[in-house]
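Box S2. Input/output pair 1.
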Amino acid sequence: MNILGGLDRPSAGKVTVDEIDLLSLSDEALNEYQRTKVGFVWQQTSRNLIPYLTAEENIELPMIMSGVHKKQQRREWAHELLNSVGLFHRRHHQLIQLSGGEQQRIAIAVALANRPVLLLGDEPTGEVDSATARTIMETFSRLREELDLTIVIVSHDPRIAEQVDRVVAIRDGKISTETVRQVSQLEALMAGGASGSQEILLPSQVTYKEFVVLDSAGRLQIPKEIREELGIGKRVEMQIEDGRIIIKPVEGEGGEPLKNLTIEEQIAILFSGEKVPQRKPGSVKKLKWLRWR
C-alpha cells in the first residue's frame, strides 16, 4: 500500500500507476503524484479527518492544498462527493457528530477530493459493524463505476471478498491464491442492455473461482490446513496424469517437520524406497558439517 501510494520507494522491481514509473520519480514529482493520482482511506478515522472541521471543510482542504483557489469550484465538487457517499445532509457536521460509518464515508469523499485514479483502502471496515461495512463497500463499488476508479483494499475482513471482483490472498508474506468474480452470460447481457434499464442479479448468476498462484520460479503455496489434513510434510510426490499435475503426500512422513528429526532419521527418509548406503563411522558427523558449511 505504501509503495502504491508513493509513501515508500521499492528497493527493486517495477511499479507503474497510470503509466507513471514510480521508481524514476524525483521527490518533488513523487509528492505531486501523491496529491493528484492517489487517495487514501485509513482504518483509523483520525488519520482521515480533522476533528474541528466540518465534513464539507474536510473535503475542501485537499483541494486548497492542491491550489484550487476558487471557492465555488471547491464547494461544487465537495457537494457532488457528499451526494455520492449519501451524506450531503451531514455536510455541516463535525467528526464528533458523525457515526463511525459516516466518518468512513466522509473519509472516502476526502480521498477523492483531488480526483485520483487510484484509491487505496487500509482496513476501511475494520472498526464498524456488518451493516455499516456493507454500506461502505457499496459506496466503494458505486464510486468505482461513477468515477472510473481503480480501488485496492487491504483487509482481514472476509465479508469484503463477496463484494469485489478480485481477491488476492497473502500467506506468510507471499501471494497464495487469487479469487476472481465470474459472471454468467445472462448477467453480461443484462449489463450491456438498453440505457436506463435496471440490472437485477440473482445469486446463481455470480460465481467465484479460486486459483492457486505460482511465483516466477513455479512455486505454489499449499495452505497449512490442507497440508495437515492430508499429512503432507516437507516433501511430496508429484506426477503428471491425463494432462493434470497430481501432488501426493509421502507415505510415512505424516506431516512431521524434518527439523524435528535426527540426522539418521532424515537420511532414512531421503533414501526411503531405495537401498540405504552403508554408514561408516563418523559419516553422520561429516554430513552434518557439510550441511552447515
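Box S3. Input/output pair 2.
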Amino acid sequence: MQWSADNTIPSIQDKSLKLRELFAKVANASLEKGLSKEEAIFAGTNAVKIEERKNQPAKVKAPKTPSHVESLRSYTNPFEVVTKAQEGQIEVPTVKAAEFDAEGHLVILMSDGRRVVTKGKAVEQHIDQRIGVSVNPVFDHVQMNTTANYTSEDYLPGMMTWNEFEDCLDIVQNDGSILQVGLESYIEVINKTDSTMQNGTVVRFSGVSLDEIPEASPLVADGSTPPLYLIGVLTNTLIPGQRGRATVFGKVRNINTTGSDVGETWQQGDLLYSHPSQPGKFTKVQPTAPNLVISVAAVLKADATQGKILVRPTIFPRLFYGTFSSAVVQTPVAVNTPYAVSFETTEISSGVNLSNASKVTTQYAGLYSFDFRLQLTSSNSSQKSVYIWARKNGVDVPNSNSKVTLVGNGVEVVPSWSFSISMQAGDYFELMYAATDLSVSINAPAATSFAPATPSATLRVSQINL
C-alpha cells in the first residue's frame, strides 16, 4: 500500500496538509525498508505526533532577569532552598556541568557533588555562551530518543540514532552502510577486481592493499580456495578500487533472495551455501566433495529486490584426500632391492597430488592415513618374501616395514594396511617394496565376464586431522 496526503489512515485525515504529507512520506519510506504495514503506520503516526509537539507554543515566557540569581533550590529536594553564596562569607564551589531539564530549568552540577536547578524556566538566552568545564566531562549515560522515527532518507554520514524497529543503535558510515550496534559486525574491504561487486556478494580474502585494508574478491566453493579465506557478504555495492564493508555477522538487505539468479527457488528459512561454480553466489543445495561445504547465511525474507538474509558463516573443517591406482604389472628387476610402487591413474583427489608416478604430494599440512592394496602373484613353487614399507621425502619411515611370504606356483596374496604419517605442505609419500625372488610380481588380472578388472596397486590417502 502507498499512502498520500489524500489517502491516509482515519486518525490522520483531519490533520493539516503538511502533517498528512509527513505521515505519507514516513509510512511509505518504512514500507520501502521492508517493514510491515502495521510498522509503517506506527512510524508515520509517531512522526506526526513529534511534529505536533515541536509546533506547540511555549507554556512559560522567558523572564527578563534569570530567576536563579536570587536563589537556588536542591535538584533532589525541590523544597530545600540553598542559601545564596555571598562574597567573603563561604568558599564558592565551582561549576562542573550545566544543562536544561525537560521543563526548562537550568540544572547545575557543582564540584561538591550537589545538583541544583533554577526556580524559573527558559533562561537560555541569558547564559554566557563561554561557560565551559575545565576537566574532561564524565557522563553517567547518554539517553537517545527512541521514537525519532528516522528513515534512510534522514540519515547522514556520522549520524548516530536509535532504531526503534530493530531496538538498537544505528551508526551511519560514509559509504552509506549502517552499523546496527550489537546486532551485526563488519570488516572493511576494498574491491581490487576489475568488475563491480554487488551488494550481497560472498567474498574471500585475496590480499592486502597499501592502506593495510583486506582486498576482497568473489568466493567460489570449488576447492580452489581454502574455506578459511572466507570474509563474509558485501553490504554495499563496490566498483573496482572502492572501499566498503563486508558483513561477517548480521543482516544484509535489499538483495535478490528468490534463487532465480542461480536457477533455484528459495524460501524463508532456507540455509545458503557458497556456490561451487558461480563466484560470489549462494546455493541452497549443500555441495559435496570435491567442492567445499561453507554455510554462509539463511533467508529471512524471500524477495527479488527487497530480500533479506542473516549472515553467520559456518566453516566446516576441510580434510584433503586422494585415491590413486595402477593397472600395470610391476616386477622387481633385482632381488633384495627397494622399488617404489607406481600409480598411473588419479581416481579422485583434493589437496593431494601424484607426481613421477610414485610420489604422492600433500599440498597442506596435517596428519594423513595412507592405505594401500597390492595384488601379489607367485609364478613358481619356491618360497619367496616381499617387504613393504613407507618412505617420506626419500627417507624410510622407521618401523614401517612388513613382510609377506608366498609359497606355490600361481599363489596370490593381497596385502593391505595403512600408515599414519604427519605431513607438511610439499612433503611426498612413496610406497616401497623389495622381493627375495624375481618370480613374484604385482599383478593386474584382467576383467572377467562377471567381474571388473583388478588393479595391481591402489593407494587411498585421507587427512585424518589438521
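Caption for Box S3: The radius of gyration is 38 Å. Helices lie at 17-32, 37-54.
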